[in-house]
## 1
Amino acid sequence: MNITGAEIVVRTLQELNVSHIFGYPGGAVLFIYDEIFKQNKVKHILVRHEQGAAHAADAYSRSTGSPGVCLVTSGPGLTNAVTGIATAYMDSIPLVVISGQVPSHAIGQDAFQEADTVGITRSCTKYNVLVQRVEDIAPLIRQAFHIAQTGRPGPVLVDIPKDITAQIAAYAPDKSPIVMRSYNPVAKANKQQIKRALQLIKNAKRPMIYTGGGVILGNAAAELTKFADKTKFPVTNTLMGLGGYPANKKQFLGMLGMHGTYEANMAMQYCDVLLAIGARFDDRVIGDPTHFAREKRQIIHADIDPSSISKRVAVDVPIVGYIDDILKELNSGIAASLPEPKPLAEWWKQIDGWRAKKCMNYKKATRIIKPQQVIEALHEETRGDAFVTSDVGQHQMWAAQYYPFNKPRRWINSGGLGTMGFGLPAAMGVQLAHPKAQVACVTGEASIMMCIQELSTCKQYRLPLKIINLNNRYMGMVRQWQEFFHGNRYAESYMDALPDFVTLAESFGHVGIRIEHPKDLKAGIKHAFAQKDKLVFLDILTDPTENVYPMVAAGKGLSEMVLAEDL
Amino acid sequence: MRRILSILIENQPGALSRVANLFSARGYNIESLTVAPTEDSTLSRMTVVTHGNDATTEQITKQVNKLIEVYKVIDITEEKHVERELMIVKVRAAGEGREEIKRLVDIFRAVIINVTPKTYIIQITGNQQKLNSFITALGNSAILEIARTGACGLTRLDK
């Protein structure tokens, strides 16, 4: 069958079972949009800014496990999407970006809406490629999906010059496996290392399981739970790993890291055998690596990416492979090698001592709403089963701390890049992937302004999101750092001239509600969620002076936390 | 410590910039970099000379390996290996110094490949140390211009 390059693009996406594309049209992609118009298998979602397209496609992927797809035009279309692509790259999210490019003959001529797309996105994609012949479109798109989803996942970009989308070539669906001699990520875990790991697990007196986004991305949550059930070891999750292990289990010590719990950070610091699973010892997780390395412990590190191993922390037993497979092997090998009950009992006693600090306690007030209260009320109203997206800052940390996640892929946030503006478009992607689910976007009055235009997209597709705006009139996390480290000089972190979010939401055709008093909080949230078919923007005025605790200051060690009670 | 990485990479547009970009993005240093197609025209061999301790070199090797188009990376300084670099030097060769330079060329087993009444262009190959010694022997005052290729190398292993 001979068809145009543009039709090949759309047919290949159909062939790959793509349900949604998030995009924005423009000159270089007009032939592709013409083909999108002529079919109804792949649904196109028109965003209001390309950053939103990338975030929505990214969150579609985070919540489903299937790759998200976005389509942007050349030049500014692509550069607008770069923040979203970099966000997906830092969190290893499978995302396929198709970008239009100026016609082949115009490349390098400083043509209208030309940008060196492949050059610009080289360091924020797992792979990118400029299509040079119409015959290559289908194979390169199939290859993009393959690369995006296998090994350590990540965004892949396919840049297609306009003239090539108008040329004619033969097309036939092709489901044969993709073979690339220079890309073979599937690593079967080394048996010897599994054996060594089992030995350490058996002899551990103060064991600790520390898991990250790799457990979520690798669909290994069930196997992890089995492993924890068998070993009775304590478990902590990183910000990206929340939901990888049910938060309602007794063995769960909460999140670790800069704003992690006292018990998780102390257990991390003082364990004798640490199992790091799909995590990468990030600076926000272990703080200062030399301080962390002061305590002697054996580290087992399982990860799909060999370059994550011994990158920041020297590892004793490296295991490279798919996390689910590794956990299966550990689970089957573990039966005979369970640790003696007595030393573990002592370890748990020590952990319970740390737990007794109750580091997550906070003081409620009668006149002003505490942000933690809002998250707890949201958790109660949604029975802990909503999809929660967030932006970046204090509200993100409170959401991570006070909304316990029991299932993977429910907590959707920008952990690595820390992209303000992520939350709203992400919530759109999640709601489109799960039309019946409750989707809440926890945000702040600073973050929400960065992609506020997407309220218009929400109207067009009738997305009944619930936006929880923790409005403290400050860029809260910036203000907190200025309070701690810059002598209370709040340089440019006060949000002056804020819009009236209630009428703003209404002007986009949504419902806006403001909550100012603690006594109205629960009823307000209930009322918002009762409006099942409407987007409700809850503008909740919260305590502007509240800080996120516990806190490990940047560059400090995990056991050097500042707790709320210390102040 | 000086390391020589030998990288086999798909001979595709942009391959060089992917590797160069990785080094600059992660703050690794490049002392020299050479690249040309191999006996298999679909593959290029890139030889990168870099500096780093064992941990840094391990990270560099892993990160390079992660590039989709990289077929193989080896740190040839881990093995017995040969290393060669080509240098051409334009020198002032007038008056009595002209003979002395000719003698140095013979001692270093270099070749004079261009002659004018006032200058020579000398071609010399060898490892980095040999080329540096030759520069020292010539002395700063004689040298007009230098062009060096950077090192390339292979292991001495049977395969």
## 2
Amino acid sequence: MNIVVCVKYVPDASADRRFEADNTVDRVGVDGLLSELDEYAVEQALQLKEKLGDDTQVTVLSVGPDGAGDAIRKALQMGADKGVHVVDDAIAGSDALGTSLVLAEALKRATWDLVICGMTSTDGAMGVLPAMLGERLGVPALTFGSSLTVEGGKATIRRDGDVATETIEASLPAVVSVTDQSGEARYPSFKGIMAAKKKDVLTFSLGDLGVSADQVGLSASWTAVEGTEARPPRTAGEIVKDEDGSGAKALAEFLASKKFI
Amino acid sequence: MAEVLVLVDHVDGAVRKTTHELLTIARRLGEPSAVFIGSLSDDAAASLKSNGAEKIYTVDDADIKGFLVAPKAEVLAQLVGSASPAAVLISASVEGKEIAGRLAVKTDSGVITDAVDVQAGPVTTQSVFAGNYTVTAKVTKGTPIIAVKPNAAAPEAVEGAGAVEAVSVSVSAAAKSATVTSSEPKAASGRPELTEAATVVAGGRGTGGDFSAVEGLADSLGAAVGASRAAVDSGWYPHAFQIGQTGKVVSPQLYIAAGISGAIQHRAGMQTSKTIVAVNKDEEAPIFELVDFGVVGDLHAVLPAVTSEVNTRKG
Ligand SMILES: Cc1cc2nc3c(=O)[nH]c(=O)nc-3n(C[C@H](O)[C@H](O)[C@H](O)COP(=O)(O)OP(=O)(O)OC[C@H]3O[C@@H](n4cnc5c(N)ncnc54)[C@H](O)[C@@H]3O)c2cc1C
Ligand SMILES: Nc1ncnc2c1ncn2[C@@H]1O[C@H](COP(=O)(O)O)[C@@H](O)[C@H]1O
């Protein structure tokens, strides 16, 4: 079986993330890495490979700047077999529709039975890309799976929705996305890190995928960010130490003064 | 004035509050047209009408029941074609996002997710980077498709014409390729809906697995109960109650964090709350950077004492 895992290179969530003057995400001034939530997608692919045997190939696919190579490398260190990196200056500033177009074109040129995505990227955090891929590729999309099983040519997920927990299935080929409930992602082992050095990463430009530069990027975007504003820092509040019940009294007093009681 | 399509979110025919919020937002943008997929009861029709729906499109779901959302996206795409709406509003739920993503591709239209406000334009407001930034945005191509978060507007009671119009749509075989094979409804907690509650009391690893103090305080305040991922991962509280990056994002008037350290992923789900209170025995806990009021102490002592204070004051 052939599995493709889509991974995104994102600014480190624990760093001071910010925007550029043109309201695009600053992807240069802030350290980037493999989106934490995409590690769960890589993990599910590796678990399937372990279960289904070695003729299962796991390819990681990322659309992003040069640094996205690091995100791909991390997934290879975890155990994926090869990487595909779509990189082109014209892609910068693409929105979800633009990115999904590029990913879909890359996927149309590959052989796969299953595409696994993360639940959302940690920067854009839209969580719409997997559905867009399903639509563009004409295959079912099973999104936000808290577990994933693949058996007898079918993929099945469990989805913890607002009003119900559902079991959802579809025949392969399909796109799925998995949540952080699907199982802790492994750390690269020393052996994995060494092995990754010899794994292939193919690089494609837009031209290689038959996408023209004016279909993607900031100017072709279907949405425009008009303004970004840092939320004002919260003003320091009052902190009291509880001694023999004084904390509870003070807190009740505070709640009453704010009319919460 | 152009129509604004609102996809009705309902559970077995009962319209959810988020739909009323969407109808209120729709009136800022044009004439609200509710799209009801399923069989419309008189109660449901009345609730849509009294929240401002001028039109109610009904689509029989006999043919698409049991399939995942792709058919709903097709229904909306066909209505976008026939009604040329000024915008399409959808709840930003797991299902809503999937519909929005598919609809965007089908209609070649821009999509904005997780809007916390939508004003004429339409101009949307989103909270990004764990709530550290506020972003305003617009759709510049196609029909704006906007997935709106719960609580983005206070529903206004306005009588609309509520003209019901049955539409028949053809759903492709391809859209019926993912099936829901089982569905277990969530047990009702008897407390307010987490994302809609005015007050949320949340417990973390510091509860040690005993949520009774958290629940007791929540009940005295009429609040919803939430949990950190550490508490959820330990199996102490169901995932549906997790607050944070990979759980629910809440923005209540009052948020009380008990035994929660305040990791960035947790903050992402509660940072925009109006008033924040924390009870934590470690005075160095990062959660204290966010609070309007904090108590350094043992939650198992502080919470029950606050609960009885609240109950006494309520009289
Ligand atoms: C990809 C990813 C996604 C994540 N998503 C989320 C998410 O959506 N939501 C989320 O919450 N986390 C999320 N996390 C986890 C997050 O990083 C933290 O690990 C988690 O929030 C910690 O939970 P906690 O504060 O309950 O536990 P801890 O960090 O262990 O803090 C427990 C706190 O309780 C205090 N305490 C202990 N005993 C008592 C007592 N008796 N009385 C008072 N205080 C006491 C301690 O001082 C401490 O501050 C995510 C992590 C990752 C990697
Ligand atoms: N530029 C990208 N390259 C590869 N995969 C991506 C990219 N952007 C998003 N994805 C995938 O789509 C998922 C959802 O992303 P999003 O819709 O942006 O929240 C991510 O978890 C990734 O699996």
